[in-house]
Amino acid sequence: MIRIRTILANGTVITPIRALHSSSVIVEGGRIAAVLPSDQVEMQEQDRVIDVGGAYIAPGFIDIHTHGAGGHDFMDGSVEAIMEAARTHLRYGTTTIMPTTLTSDLDELFDTLDKFAQAKSKLKDGPNLHGLHLEGPYFSREQAGAQDPRYIKNPDPDEYRRIVGYSGEVKRWTIAPELPGALEMGRYLSERGILCSMGHTNAVYEDVVAAVENGFRLVTHLYSAMSGVRRINAYRYAGVIESALLLDELTVEVIADGVHLPKSLLQLTYKVKGPDRICLVTDSMRGAGMPEGESILGSLKDGQRVIIEDGVAKLPDRSAFAGSVSTSDRLVRTMVKLAEVPLVDAVKMVTLTPAKLLGIAERKGQIAPGKDGDLVVFDADINVSLVMVGGQVRFEQSQGRDL
Q1: Widest CA span of the chain, in angstroms?
Q2: Which of 137, 351, 361, 373 could be a cystine partner for 27, CB 3.0 to 4.6 Å?
Q3: In total, how many domains does the chain have?
């Protein structure tokens, strides 16, 4: 049986350490078969050759924190909403995605778990659905941000064990580590291979150290909804921000939309943590890929009204951001154009670094023989023209439609 190869030819291939000019990527059987200088590729009659004309070829982007896109939220209670939000992200280069919940009642959460499992088995033309990220409800009330305060509480062992037991699709959970019972929860999650992250937290350095010792490995959207240095009884204490920058054991999320964090903080985070300890995330709500105007954060049933303007979602009183409307291509563009980070490092922060964090780096996050054929092609302005998942072209801008 003849196996048809797909060749992305005449591109600049982005690896974790350099850019390979005038190179081609050969994909066969859903995996990368070879990366070669273009003039060394021996074409076969049955090959499908896509000449990218010098554009960049990068690993597919991995978004580990997103609430929705394309007018849909992952908590809308609909299988189709989950699939449509995922398909929207695909068009901007995301090939592996971790849908994220907001604080809610248990019935809504369990319904989301059910709908996600159905969508994962049904979606054939979108990105890989890696698993669910539960954001809350075990948060600091002082750092609630846009999370619904009605559902915020301390960790309840009976409750979170029931949730984990209900669905094997829970792959990550964000909680505030200073809350009573949070460290026990961290150990419980870590023992089951669930990524434990700290966020919406008012912790101080000592709390963060204890959290790291009890399984916490990630900081959710650095600088947003977390403590900084402050005085307690006249003494200064480092907050989560300073602790995250100081502790090498922690990886941090950065919402690199150019709005949540200014150039100076993007550059500071990059300088201190480096590309191996930063994951670029969209933290996008349903407004990603949509025009500005009124929208809803969370589910249609029980979400909060927000306003999309200035490239970000805001609470109605404009007192705080309410999630971004970014897509993964914008993250890379911001880091390169605004923060002046080398393209190789910007790509690494949305490919290999999250792949390692999720434990899937043996298959994803890098262009190398044997890796999955998840690839994205973009120009110098990070405009995506082609997306491939598992060796199949799922989006091609020249045709303006999903394939």
Answers
A1: 76
A2: 373
A3: 2
Pairing between strand 68-69 and 72-73? antiparallel
Please state at what angle helix 182-191 crosses helix 205-213, rounded to 10 degrees. Answer: 30
Instruction: Identify the pLDDT of residue 397.
Output: 87
- Tell me: do 133 and 10 sit in the same domain: no
Integer Cα distance of 100 and 94 in angstroms: 15
- d(CA 135, CA 140) in angstroms, rounded, equals 12
Does the predicted TM-score (pTM) go above 0.90? yes
400 — pLDDT class (breaks 50, 70, 90)? very low
DSSP helix/strand/coil, 381: coil
In the predicted structure, residue 304 carries a pLDDT above the cut 90? no
- Domain match, 201 and 253 both: yes
pLDDT in tens, 352-381: 999 999 999 999 999 999 999 999 999 999
When computed from its CA atoms, the radius of gyration of the chain, rounded to whole angstroms, is: 21
pLDDT of residue 302: 75
369 token code pair:
């023989």
d(CA 339, CA 332): 10
Domain ranges, residue 283: 60-358
